[in-house]
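The instructor's notes for this session suggest beginning with a concrete chain rather than abstract definitions. Hand out the sequence below and ask the class to guess, before any prediction is shown, which regions might be ordered.
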Amino acid sequence: MSPTALTALLLVALAACAPPASVPATTEADVDADAVADWSAAFEAEGAVGTMVLLDTQTGRTTRHDPDRAAERFSPASTSKIYNSLVFLDRGVISDVDSLFAWDGVERWAEVWNRDHSLRSGLEVSAVWLFQRAALQVGRGGYDDVFAREPFGNSTMSDALETSWLDGTWRVSADEQVAFLDRLRRGALAFSAEDQATVRDILPVLAEAGEVRVKGKTGWYVREPDPELGWLVGWVERPDGDLVFAMNAEQASGASFDIMRGRLRIVRAILEGEGLWPVDPDEAP
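After discussion, reveal the predicted structure:
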C-alpha cells in the first residue's frame, strides 16, 4: 500500500472516531502537583472502564483517571512496537526504516498486513508478522541485553519471543508507558540519539492542525479468559509544551465496547475536554 493510501485510510478511521461530546476539564487548582481527574464520562460513552494518564511536560503535572489502574500492569499488545522498533534498530536487525521485509504469503485477518512492509509502514498499520520476524532475529540474548540497560514494564519474555507482547507475559502499566514515552520524546532513553530520533519520526500521526500534532500507537490484547484490552499511547506536540498520554480500557459489565474505534474516541474526548486536541482554525466554530 502506498503512503498516500495509508494516509487516506487513517483519515477515514479518524473521521469515524469523532466523539459524541467532550469531557469536562479537570478542576485541579495546583497545576504543579499530580492530580486525579474524573474522566469516567469519556469511558462510559464507549461502554468501557479504564485509565488515562496525562503528563504536562511544561508544568510537570501528571493527571490520572483511576490511579490504581494506572499503576497496574497489562499486556502492552501492539504499543510494544514502539519499544521493539528501538530494539530492532539498536541490535542492527533493521538499519533502514524504509527497507522492505518480504511478506511470507500467509493471509492474515487484516488485509493491510498482507503485503511487503518496511518498519515505517509496518508500525503505521501494526503489521504483526514483521515485528514477530524481527523479534526472532534479535533473540533472547539480544532482548536480555537491552532490558538490562533500558527496562520496559516487567521486561519479561515468554518462551515464544514472538508472542510475548500478545500472550500476557510482557506487561507494562500506563504510568510506565508515560514515563517511557516522555524519555523517548526527550531523547533520554538508553538508546542512541539517532535511533530515538528515527522512532519519533516514524511514530504514526493521529491528528494534526496548525502547530499541534498528535502522535501515537494503538494496542489490542485478546487472550481468553482475560477481558479484551485496548490501548492508545503517545504525545501531543504543541508550541506551549508537549503532553504525553497513555490510556487503556476494557468493556464495562453489561456494555458494548468497540475497541478498534473507541480507543481513539476516549482519548480525543478527554483531550478535547481539556482543550488540548488540535483544532483546525478554519473548522473551529
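Then share the key points. The first strand starts at residue 35 and ends at 36. Confidence is low (pLDDT under 50) at residues 1-32.
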